[in-house]
Design a protein that fits this description.
DNA-binding; homotetramer; disordered C terminus; Tetracycline Repressor, domain 2; elongated; 0% strand; Arc Repressor Mutant, subunit A
DNA sequence: CATGAATGAGAGTTCATTCAT
DNA sequence: TATGAATGAACTCTCATTCAT
C-alpha cells in the first residue's frame, strides 16, 4: 500500500458507513487507541477519548473489546507480531551472527517508529492485569532470547567479539527501544537514517578504528573509567 | 539478617518520633515515594500508599509537600542533580572525548540503578504539569547536550570515529536509560558488571576486532562479567 | 392538600424515567441546587446533597454540569435573565422616570421572592471563580446602571427630586435585595404585599406629607397595602 | 482615639511583646478575624489565615477562643453591641418618631462601614451552630423591633405617614444593611455622604415634592452629597 | 505557655463499566 | 443494534482540631 503509507485515511472513516467489515472497525479502534496511548499514556487515555476520536459512542467500543485492557493487550500483541516477523525473516535469510544482529538493528529501529511497535516497548506493563502481564512478558522475553541467540551465534562464528550476550542484547535493545520514546514522526530524522547509524554505531562502536597495534592498547587501558563514584 | 544491618533503616523510622529533623522526614517521604513510583508508576501510587508505607496518615504528607506532583518533581530534581554531578566530575577530570564518553557510560549506568536516578528516566513525563514538564525537559536536554559534547570532542580529537553526534548520544543514552527499566536491585547483575560491559560494548562495538593478538582477547575476557545466566 | 396540586411536581420526578428530556433534567438540577444554595449556602451544599434530593447519585450530576461552580453560575445567569426581562419590559412600556422606578420596585420585589432571583443577590459572589465573577459582576452592574438611568430620567423629567442617582439606586436596590434574605416563601407576607408597600415607601418616603389637600391623602391611602399584620 | 481612627496599628502588633494584656490580644484576634471574614467569608477563612496575619501559630488561637465559631460569634456580639448603643442613644435623645428614624439611619449607615458592624449583617448566619444562631437571631430581632418601634412612634405622633411598620422597617434596614455589601473603605463615598443621602431619601422618598417653596429645594440641595460620580 | 506535627472526616471530581431503551 | 444515562469506587486535597513536646 505505497500511497497509503504516506497518507492513510483517518481511522474513524471505518465507522462512517453502517455496512463495514467489523474486523476493519476493530482495527480502527486499535489504531486509534494505540495513537492515543502513545500520545497520552494508557492511563490518561479514557475510553471517551478513544470513542470521540472515532466519532462513535463509548459503549460502542464495548462491542469490539471486552474492556479497556483488552485494547491495550491487543496493541501489545499486534506489535509483538510485527517484531516476531522481523526476527523470522532475519533468522531465515541472513548470514553470520553479526550480520543478523545488524539486520535486526536495522529492521527493529524501523518498527520502533511505527505505532504498534512503539506500543510494545513504550507503554507501561504495569497497566496490564497479572494474566496479561505474563503473556506480554512472554513476548518480550522471546524477542530478547532471539536477539541474544544472534549474538551468541556471532560469538561462535567469530563475527562478534567475546562478551556477555545477555548484556550485549540489553545494550542493543535499550538503544533501540529508547527510539520509541524520543522519536517524533514529524521530526527531522527519518527512520532509515536512524536505523543506518544505529546499525553502524552498535556493531562497530564509537571508537575510531585506527589501523593500530599495541600503542592503542595502552590508551585503551587508560581510558578505563577510574575513580568515578 | 546480619548482612542487611549495613543497609539504611527503613524510611518510616524517620517518623517514629514526633520531634525529628523535618528534612530527614522530607527525604524519607521522597525515598519512599520514589520506591513506589518505580514499583507501580506514579499514577497507580496513591498518597495513601506512600503514607501507609511510612506508617503515617495521608494528610501528614501535605506537611512536607504541597501536592503529589511536588513529590514527583522533587524526585526528578534529586535524580537530575545526581546525574549533573557525574557530568561535572567527568568534564573536570577526564581526557579524550572517548574517555569521557566511557567514563560517562560507566558512571551513568551506576546511577540508573539508584532509585532517584531511575526516576528521571523511567517515570512518565506526562504526569507532570506543563510548568514542571518544562523544568524537567530542561534537565534532560542538558544531560543530552553534555553527552553529545563529549562525542563531538571525541570526533574532534580523533578518539571517536566520524558519526552523527546526536544519534550517537541517543544510542548511548538509550542503552543506558533502558537499564532503569530492566534492572532489578535484587537481580543477579551488579551495577558494576553492567557498567563495565556497557562501557566496553558501546565504545568498541560488538564486532570482533580482527587481526588482534590473543593478549587482548584475554583481557577482554577478564573484564567480562562472569557467571551471568 | 388540594390547593397544592397546582404546585409543580418535585424536581426529582424529572429523573424517574431514564429517557426524558435532558433539558428538563438539567433544569431540575438547577432548581434543586438553587433551593439548597438558598437553604444552606453554596459551600455547605455538597454535590451529594443535590444528588440526594433528586434521588440520583453524585456523578450523575456531572452529566449535566461540568462542575459545581457551573451549577452556581447557571443560577446566577437564570436569575439575571429574569431581572433583565423585567427591565426590558419597563423600559418599553412605562412613562415618567418615577413611574419606571416604581414599576421596577414592584416587579423586582417579586423576583426577589423567586429562587433564581434570590440567588443572584443572596449567594456569595466569593464562591465564583475569577472568570465567572467578572461575568456575574457584569450582570449586576448592568442592572444597577439601568435602575440608575431610570432615576436620572426621573430627575430630568421632574418626577423625581434632586438627588445623587447612584446613592438613590443603592438605597432602592438595597431595600429590595434584602428581601431575598428575610423573605420566607411560607411566611405571612405575600410577594405582592411586599412589592406594593415597598413601591410606595421608597418613592414617597416615610415622612407624612403635611398640609396637603384631600386629593393627595386619598391617593396615598389607596396605594397603601391593606391588611398587613 | 482620633489619631488611631486614621491609621490604627496592625493587629498583630498586639502579639509582638510577650507581656501584653491578654484582653488586647483577644481583641486583636477578633479584629483580624473580622477583617478576613469580610474579605473572604467565614468559610473561606481558615484558622491558618487568621494565625498567619497575626504572626502567631494556629494553636495559639485556641488559647483565646475555644473554636472557630466562637470567634465568629464574638464578632456578631461586638457588632450587635455597637448597634445597640446607637439605638440607646437615639431612644434617649431624639424627638419625634421620624427624627428617631432619621437619626437611626444616619448612625446605622455609619456603623455599616465599620468591620464589626458589617459582620453582623454581612456574614452568613448559616455558619453558626443552632445555639449561637438563636442568640444572634435574638440580637437582630431586637434591632428590628426597636427600629419598628420608632416607626410606630412616628405614625402615632403624626411625623410618619400611615404604613405597615414592619415592612417599612424592612425597607430601611435593607437599604442600610446592603451598604455593608457594596461599601468599600477605600472607595469614593464617605460614610457621612452615604448616611446623609440615605437619611433623606428614605424619609422623604424619591418623588419630587411639587408645589413647594424654594426653601425646601435649598435644603434638599444642601443635603445632597456633592461630587459623586 | 506555645508550637510543630499529626489526624479524621469530608469535599469535588474522574472513569471504567453497565443498565435501559 | 447502538446509545444516552447512570453508577460505584477511587483519588487528591483541605481543614478544624488536638497531641506531644
Amino acid at each position: 500500500m505505497p500511497p497509503l503509507s504516506i497518507v492513510s485515511p483517518p481511522h474513524w472513516k471505518a465507522f462512517s458507513s453502517r455496512r463495514r467489515d467489523p474486523a476493519t472497525k476493530r482495527e480502527a479502534v486499535l489504531q486509534t487507541a494505540a495513537e492515543l496511548f502513545l500520545e497520552k499514556s494508557y492511563t490518561r487515555t479514557s475510553m471517551n477519548d478513544v470513542a470521540e476520536r472515532l466519532n462513535i459512542t463509548k459503549p460502542a467500543l464495548y462491542h469490539y473489546f471486552q474492556n479497556k485492557e483488552e485494547i491495550l493487550l491487543e496493541c501489545y500483541r499486534w506489535g509483538s507480531r510485527l517484531i516476531g516477523e522481523i526476527l523470522n525473516e532475519i533468522s531465515a535469510h541472513c548470514g553470520s551472527g553479526l550480520e543478523k544482529v545488524e539486520a535486526f538493528i536495522y529492521a527493529y529501529a524501523n518498527v520502533m517508529t511505527v505505532n504498534f511497535g512503539r506500543c510494545v516497548m513504550r507503554l507501561d506493563e504495569g497497566d496490564l492485569s497479572p494474566t496479561a502481564l505474563v503473556e506480554v512478558r512472554g513476548y518480550k522475553r522471546k524477542i530478547d532470547r532471539r536477539l541474544r541467540a544472534f549474538v551468541q551465534e556471532g560469538i561462535a562464528d567469530g563475527s562478534i567479539g567475546a562478551c556477555d550476550p545477555k548484556l550485549a542484547a540489553f545494550a542493543i535493545a535499550g538503544a533501540l527501544n529508547w527510539i520509541c520514546i524520543w522519536y517524533e514522526p514529524e521530526g527531522p530524522l527519518s527512520p532509515e537514517q536512524i536505523a543506518a547509524q544505529f546499525a553502524h554505531t552498535l556493531t562497530q562502536g564509537l571508537a575510531a578504528r585506527h589501523r593500530r597495534g599495541a600503542l592503542w592498547a595502552g590508551v585503551r587501558n587508560n581510558s578505563k573509567p577510574g575513580g568515578l563514584s
